[in-house]
Specification:
The protein is α/β, with parallel strands linked by helices and 391 residues long. The chain contains 19 helices and eleven strands. A six-stranded parallel beta sheet has the order 3-2-1-4-5-6, with helices on both faces.
Length: 391
């Protein structure tokens, strides 16, 4: 039995933050009911332009839509809100990422909901927070990167900001939100009461910079981890070499390739000087690296205890033996595509076993089944369908 078996989670979220948190809880056995609005549903369903053009499943939705049942519910209708209320009365967790005030206007803010179901864990993933000057601003990963200082990390004064193409803040916020839900469920076992769990893209983006923040608040200097990295072109690709944790990394690099010790140059005598004059190191050592393949460079550098790794494209990474050994990819049966590899949960429980996840469901695919599970009769469900309360 999975650890969250018997736990019912209502997911009222869109895009990545909350849907990914819902998927993570579903991975651990929770019955996740994804509640979407008609007629479009989650924005992620058509955000993928390639999938939309083919009138096929969005690859983005597939990435965060596993292990859920879907209910398409019109909350603009009184009956739709009544249905949501009944689900809330019998649920263990509710998660959403609507703007502050949206759920309150529907009558489902934390204060109202906690009165009708004191055991409910109510979790919210905000963009910038529940209150404050940015609270009403629409949020997105790259906006959080921009406002949090994330996009200026490693950028020299006057330099151009850099956005990370991978939505790292979204992912970290989803993981943080699911962690908070798990903690609140554990607390409920002791107190019998649910709790309000909140986080935001903005807070998580700042929290991810905890080392950078401490360097400024304690000693007023800017931590830049990129300064410890050099990227060299090789005969057939690229390699990243780190100068971290070594007193004289250049000397070790020269030793690895049987080259004269370049650190004899007073300007390059120590790790600090080598970082300060990184362009000079690149100029002198770059031609050495280009004489060897990436694999040869990694082997030689590793023998002298220099931290390094090949720079790989994602296509190659997904085929790498370490990726396969770690079992991070899982087979998912996607309608119309057969078995497809998608990224699974990076946190595994040894006692949970391995099974093919529930594939991403169509909009409202389980609407009738869910309402039946919550006590609605066939006639009531048919009536709801006819009046567009559910789809």
């Amino acid at each position: 039995m999975k650890p969250l078996s018997g736990i019912t989670v209502l997911e009222l979220g869109m895009v990545m933050q909350v849907p990914l948190a819902g998927q993570m809880l579903g991975d651990y056995g929770a019955d996740v009911i994804k509640i979407e609005r008609p007629p479009r549903g989650d924005i992620m369903r058509d955000l993928d332009e390639v999938g939309t053009a083919r009138e096929d499943m969005s690859c983005y939705y597939a990435a965060v839509g596993c292990n859920k049942r879907t209910l398409c519910l019109d909350l603009k209708q009184d009956e739709g809100r009544e249905v949501l209320g009944k689900l809330i009365d019998n649920a263990d967790v509710l998660i959403h990422n609507f703007r502050p005030g949206a759920m309150e206007r529907l009558g489902f803010g934390y204060e109202e909901v906690s009165k009708r179901n004191p055991r409910l864990v109510y979790a919210v993933g905000y963009a910038f927070g529940a209150k404050g000057p940015l609270s009403g601003m629409p949020g997105q990963d790259m906006l959080a990167q921009s406002l949090s200082g994330f996009a200026m990390n490693g950028v020299e004064s006057g330099g151009r900001p850099r956005l990370t193409a991978t939505p790292t803040v979204d992912y970290a916020t989803a993981a943080s939100l699911s962690q908070g839900v798990l903690a609140a469920l554990l607390g409920r076992e002791r107190t019998g009461k649910g709790d309000l769990v909140t986080t935001s893209l903005f807070d998580v983006a700042i929290a991810m910079q905890l080392l950078e923040t401490s360097s400024r608040t304690l000693y007023d200097y800017r931590t830049d981890w990129v300064q410890y990295a050099m990227i060299f072109k090789t005969q057939d690709g690229w390699i990243t070499v780190l100068t971290l944790f070594r007193d004289n990394p250049l000397q070790l690099m020269c030793k690895a390739f049987n080259e004269d010790d370049m650190s004899a140059d007073p300007l390059l005598a120590t790790a600090t000087l080598q970082r300060k004059h990184a362009s000079k190191v690149q100029e002198k050592f770059g031609p050495v690296m280009e004489r060897y393949t990436t694999d040869e460079c990694v082997k030689r550098l590793s023998k002298t205890d220099i931290l390094c790794a090949p720079v790989m494209d994602l296509d190659d990474t997904l085929k790498h033996p370490q990726t396969l050994q770690n079992d991070i990819l899982r087979e998912v049966d996607i309608p119309g595509h057969g078995s497809v590899q998608l990224v699974g949960n990076p946190v595994k429980l040894a006692g949970q076993g391995k099974e093919m996840p529930r594939p991403p469901a169509a909009l409202g695919e389980f609407s009738s089944e869910i309402l039946s599970d919550f006590g609605y009769s066939e006639d009531e469900i048919r009536d709801f369908q006819e009046r567009g309360v559910i789809t």
